[in-house]
Write a structure and sequence with these properties.
By secondary structure, this protein is mostly helical. Helix content is 54%, strand content 8%. It has 2 domains: 44 residues, no CATH class; 45 residues. α3 packs across α4.
């Protein structure tokens, strides 16, 4: 008996995969042109062009926006998120600092645990 059981795909899922495979075969291989703007901090090619924006404006915008590549796609961070992340980094530094007082370390660890719980609740909803 075969111990490895693979998940059976539905007919619609199989047809979608076949359709995507044929589309991929028909499209030419993507190679960015040399004039495409490239973000130095994140090695993603910014291939989306907006008719109303110039190339210089796109380059400025890409440098000012902060984003994270995840399995689900690209997540953009605003300034509020960046401030929150910097506060978290300070708490982590305080919690791991061997020269700070014991009460400060305990407070930092408690705050980090609390924020972890809040983030889990946000993800669950």
């Amino acid at each position: 008996m075969n111990s490895h059981k693979s998940r059976r795909r539905s007919l619609s899922e199989s047809s979608k995969l076949d359709y995507l495979a044929t589309l991929a075969e028909q499209l030419p291989a993507f190679a960015p042109s040399p004039e495409e703007p490239v973000d130095d901090h994140y090695p993603l090619v910014l291939s989306v062009r907006h008719a109303s924006e110039s190339l210089a404006a796109l380059e400025r915008r890409s440098k000012s926006e902060s984003f994270i590549c995840t399995a689900q796609g690209i997540v953009f961070q605003d300034t509020k998120c960046q401030r929150y992340q910097s506060k978290l980094n300070k708490l982590v530094a305080l919690a791991t600092n061997s020269t700070s007082t014991q009460s400060n370390v305990l407070l930092a660890k408690k705050a980090l645990r609390y924020r972890k719980v809040l983030e889990r609740r946000r993800v669950a909803t």
